[in-house]
Amino acid sequence: xxxxxxxxxxxxxxxxxxxxxxxxxxxxxxxxxxxxxxxxxxxxxxxxxxxxxxxxxxxxxxxxxxxxxxxxxxxxxxxxxxxxxxxxxxxxxxxxxxxxxxxxxxxxxxxxxxxxxxxxxxxxxxxxxxxxxxxxxxxxxxxxxxxxxxxxxxxxxxxxxxxxxxxxxxxxxxxxxxxxxxxxxxxxxxxxxxxxxxxxxxxxxxxxxxxxxxxxxxxxxxxxxxxxxxxxxxxxxxxxxxxxxxxxxxxxxxxxxxxxxxxxxxxxxxxxxxxxxxxxxxxxxxxxxxxxxxxxxxxxxxxxxxxxxxxxxxxxxxxxxxxxxxxxxxxxxxxxxxxxxxxxxxxxxx
Length: 350
What we know:
Keywords: GTP-binding, Nucleotide-binding. It comes from Seriola dumerili. Residues 65-273 form the OBG-type G domain. InterPro entries: Beta-grasp_dom_sf, DRG, G_OBG, GTP-bd, GTP-binding_2, P-loop_NTPase, Small_GTP-bd, TGS. By secondary structure, the protein is of the alpha/beta class. The protein has ten helices and 16 strands. It has helices spanning 4-17, 22-43, 77-87, 137-150, 185-194, 210-218, 238-245, 261-272, 301-308, 312-315; strands spanning 65-70, 104-108, 111-116, 127-133, 153-155, 162-166, 172-176, 200-204, 222-224, 226-231, 250-252, 274-279, 287-295, 316-322, 331-333, 343-349. Helix 7 links the parallel strand 10 (226-231) and strand 11 (250-252). Helix 2 packs parallel to helix 6 and helix 5 (185-194) runs parallel beside helix 6.
């Protein structure tokens, strides 16, 4: 039998040879589904319960967010990691070697941000930095993106707007709420058949591709923001630098000279979407030095309590909140109140 990698290569070659048009869309959709299944076999070892997706092999998650650094050995990734962690960390610069990674911690705006460079851990990151050599970025960019996509990671994308519900009977019920340039009922049916799904409701709420549909059926995709870090800008002209600044999701730096680190950190902060909450003990000033940091979307008072201690919510009576999330300062709120960045909170216990 052929190895999984050989089968993947064979399908990829066939896809590359196939002209893309209406007539072949159906066939390409099927090939893509086969490819996705093979890739899943690669990252999920046989006989295991899905240990290969990176969640099992886990560096202890410390800090408020985790950033993965990905890049080829020669691009200055280690220099960037040790210089970032060295400048912005309470710990002395780590010895970064490419194989044994001690995760570094960057302290920024009161948050502890863990940095690491294990590709297999990329799925567990809140942000991925792809470090590229400014002199040959595109080849590396393609290869790395391809590799990450193989791990089920989607960069700078929202999950597809597709409703998918398996049923016991009733066949495939296909609806599209807007015009589709790639998928039709027949293609959708045959992609689902590839997964042995013959009864399901599928609703396409935006113009979707075969890849989008496969992502939804596979169901194990993670959607992670990504910044392309173009290193070695000391080797290019000002004109070239101006062009790079216009490319979305891209920050030019020099790891060696420590140029533009502040820009990179500010952009990382933007993409991480963290919310800082300051605590105020009764009768004292708020502690602005060590905020409790919560991910955007999970910033209710209850989330705050859970982050401090899992039993705190049992003793919770109400809270006083100062800041942009309340109409008047302070405001008495319950556990469902959603807080905003740099709010101040005082808990009142039963």
